[in-house]
Amino acid sequence: xxxxxxxxxxxSGRTLGLGLALVSAVAFGGSxxxxxxxxxxxxxxxxxxxxxVTGAAVALLPIAYRHRAAVLRRPGLxxxxxxxxxxxxQAFYFAAISRIPVGVALLIExxxxxxxxxxxxxxxxxxxxxxxxxxAAVAVxxxxxxxxxxxxxxxxxxxxxxxxxxxxxxxxYFLLADAGRRGDRPVxxxxxxxxxxxxxxxxxxxxxxxxxxxxxxxxxxxxxxGHSLPALxxxxxxxxxxxxxxxxxxxxxxxxxxxxxxxxxxxxxxVVATVLAWVLLGEHLGxxxxxxxxxxxxxxxxxQTSTSPGATGAGGAGGAPEAAGGxxxxxxxxxxxxxxxxxxxxxxxxxxxAAAARERVAAVDGGVSGRSSRTSRGD
Length: 379
Prior knowledge:
Elements: H1 11-29, H2 31-41, H3 45-59, H4 61-66, H5 70-73, H6 75-97, H7 102-109, H8 112-122, H9 130-146, H10 157-179, H11 189-208, E1 221-224, E2 227-230, H12 232-256, H13 259-266, H14 268-280, H15 287-304, H16 353-359
Antiparallel strand pairs: 1-2
Helix pairs in contact: 1-12, 1-14, 2-12, 3-11, 3-12, 6-10, 6-11, 7-10, 8-10, 8-13, 9-13, 9-15, 10-12, 10-13, 11-12, 13-15, 14-15
């Protein structure tokens, strides 16, 4: 049976992926700034989350209909993305902040990229480039400053476990986004986002009971930094920009980068959230947050520039095309041996050499490189 694999990562593809990842980070980062006026007007945080996810799911119904065949092609993948990357992150994050400070919960959730690197290294058994590992460590250190974690340090075992649950679900976001492009039944990234949000909306409806909210508030006005504006403006921004655009560009970006690198770049969401809160909500931005933001930027830069020379794709210096990597069983919900940047991938085994040659030239051994108004994709 013909088995498709992901295309080699070219310099232009990597640039596109980085650009989309940055757009996704900026879009996700604005969710808290848009949600806060709605919460202050009387909607509960959980009902705001339901509005965000359900509104986005409705907006993406045309895409879901167009890609309806994906439900039969990879049902497990779509269900997993909805449960983990959408509903799971939301539920665990809000459960965590009910027990521990927001900054601490946010930092724990952003342990996702290091956990992702650990998954690739110890589960997929693929060495990680030094740039990706160092970038993740520097970015997490910067995040500790951005969220001023020292202002709310307290140990609540259950709260910490819930925060780690959000981090693990964030790992699922990147792994499942990558898995959708692999195997013998790949799924369009647009379908992954559309059906993931639909599944998430159904689960959150059961958890949040939206019929108990006073939705008439959306017909009135809210206050943002002392200025009155229609409530529908931040609601529309939160749905269309901070969710629809954020998920679509984020899922597509993972296919052009690697899950570890896309995860590190996603740390910029917390920086964007803090800056937007400063500009639009008048919240104070202290020196530690500025320094932390610079560290996050440095970590993201270190990770995304960690491609080894001569391994950026066919025609690059050294002439070695990037590895396609192996593919897992049909319908698998995680990347199986995916040869993506940020991971060193060996050449195809002898038993697969003939089939691999028909798809592309096997990669030679070598290294390729390889989220309060502060918010996260769990806000």
